[in-house]
């Protein structure tokens, strides 16, 4: 198939990844290309040049509009809308069999767009007002929607999702996250260093439990980093930097337990399955998709309760390391995820090629 992949523009689609959405888009492009599809990545122009890249904007907007995401800035909104509108016009004229939309923009959801190019939209955030109505209005024969977990799907459609929306779990290549049979007794945390990810609570729990802890990931909120993290570094708590995948995998595999501390309704939790693939059991907060992702591979406690999290760490440490590894291999592999993507592409493409009488009448 000839596939257009439309990415979010906040960060480049390139390693080391700024977050799970960037990792998702990169691995989707890489995986589909490896399966023989003709893939064009529509992303910021400073994304990975190894892909066939169509620059939606010259650079990612944290560079051109630093710190303005989620601030309602009119200039950023106009910039992003204009960039996506032009990109969607190019996609409509580009002879693509399908568009996989990961943009978090309302524009690819317009029915005139999804009728022109069969579309799969993957949701990557909890529901929010600027997008909710457009998502709910958009399902149709040539537009399928995926959520990353059952909890995520239920958040978008509390009264039940339409038949065009379903769960497609994220996946990783277990071989890229090598298993280690033993750890060094330490805890590890990885993710974006921002308040909603809760690294400060991981620090507090590790101190209570008497475990050394290493944090990995990009500093997304400088004020949070300076106020809630830096004063507590030292004495067994350290920052290991923002590492590319192979280096991060090696660091994760050395540890004995992964701390998962979402302070928001995390749609999935990619960092958890990366650690689980290396053999780390999880101690964390039961919020968002955490229970669905972690299952028997960890111990979860009420959100934002650092004392309960500290108490859960010994129970998590007692879980054999083969259990988290096998859970990933059973449920969250990249092959399984890509199979699901390809099946959805085939469905929307078939609907476009052979519309039902009802669909033709409503067009």
Rounded to an integer, what's the Rg over CA atoms?
21 Å
CATH architecture field of the largest domain? 3-Layer(aba) Sandwich
Outline the low-pLDDT stretches: none
Strand order of the largest sheet: 3-2-1-4-5-6-7
Q: How does the major sheet shape up?
A: 7 strands, parallel
Q: Please state the structural category.
A: alpha/beta
Helical run tally: 15
Just give the CATH class of the largest domain: Alpha Beta
What's the SSE pattern? EHEEHHEHEHEHEEHEHEHEHEHEHHHH
Helix content: 40-55%
**Tally of individual domains:** 2
CATH fold type of the largest domain: Rossmann fold
Question: Average pLDDT, to the nearest integer?
Answer: 95
User: Strand tally, please?
Assistant: 13
First-last Cα distance: 25 Å
Characterize the overall form. Answer: globular
**Which percent band covers the strand fraction?**
15-25%
CATH superfamily of the largest domain: Glycogen Phosphorylase B
Q: Could you describe the 3D structure shown?
A:
This protein is of the alpha/beta class. It has two domains: 2-171 and 334-362, 3-Layer(aba) Sandwich (Rossmann fold); 174-330, Rossmann fold (3-Layer(aba) Sandwich). Helix content is 41%, strand content 15%. The chain is built from 15 helices and 13 strands. A seven-stranded parallel β-sheet has the order 3-2-1-4-5-6-7. A six-stranded parallel β-sheet has the order 10-9-8-11-12-13, sandwiched between helices. The radius of gyration is 21 Å and the shape is globular. Residues 19-175 form the Glycosyltransferase subfamily 4-like N-terminal domain.
């Amino acid at each position: 198939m000839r596939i257009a992949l439309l990415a979010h523009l906040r960060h480049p689609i390139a390693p080391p990844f700024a977050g799970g959405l960037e990792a998702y888009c990169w691995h989707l492009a890489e995986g589909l290309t490896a399966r023989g599809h003709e893939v064009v990545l529509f992303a910021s122009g400073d994304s990975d040049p190894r892909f066939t890249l169509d620059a939606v904007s010259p650079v990612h907007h944290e560079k051109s509009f630093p710190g303005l995401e989620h601030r309602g800035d009119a200039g950023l909104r106009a910039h992003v809308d204009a960039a996506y509108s032009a990109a969607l016009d190019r996609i409509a004229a580009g002879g693509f069999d399908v568009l996989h939309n990961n943009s978090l923009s309302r524009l690819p959801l317009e029915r005139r767009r999804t009728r022109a190019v069969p579309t799969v939209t993957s949701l990557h955030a909890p529901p929010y007002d600027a997008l909710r109505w457009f998502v709910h209005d958009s399902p149709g024969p040539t537009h399928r929607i995926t959520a990353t977990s059952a909890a995520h799907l239920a958040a978008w459609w509390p009264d039940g999702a339409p038949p065009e929306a379903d769960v497609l779990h994220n996946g990783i290549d277990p071989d890229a996250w090598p298993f280690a049979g033993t750890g060094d007794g330490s805890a590890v945390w990885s993710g974006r260093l921002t308040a909603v990810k809760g690294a400060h609570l991981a620090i507090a729990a590790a101190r209570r439990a008497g475990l050394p802890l290493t944090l990995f990931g990009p500093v997304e909120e400088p004020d949070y980093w300076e106020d809630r993290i830096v004063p507590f570094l030292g004495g067994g708590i350290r920052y290991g930097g923002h590492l590319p995948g192979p280096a991060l995998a090696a660091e994760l595999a050395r540890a004995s337990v992964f701390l998962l501390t979402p302070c928001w309704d995390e749609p999935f939790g990619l960092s958890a399955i990366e650690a689980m693939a290396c053999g780390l059991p999880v101690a964390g907060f039961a919020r968002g998709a955490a229970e669905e992702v972690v299952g028997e591979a960890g111990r979860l406690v009420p959100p934002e309760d650092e004392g309960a999290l500290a108490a859960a760490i010994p129970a998590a440490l007692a879980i054999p390391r083969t259990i988290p590894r096998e859970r990933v291999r059973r449920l969250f592999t990249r092959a399984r995820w890509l199979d699901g993507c390809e099946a959805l592409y085939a469905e929307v493409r078939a609907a476009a090629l052979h519309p039902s009488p009802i669909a033709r009448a409503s067009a």
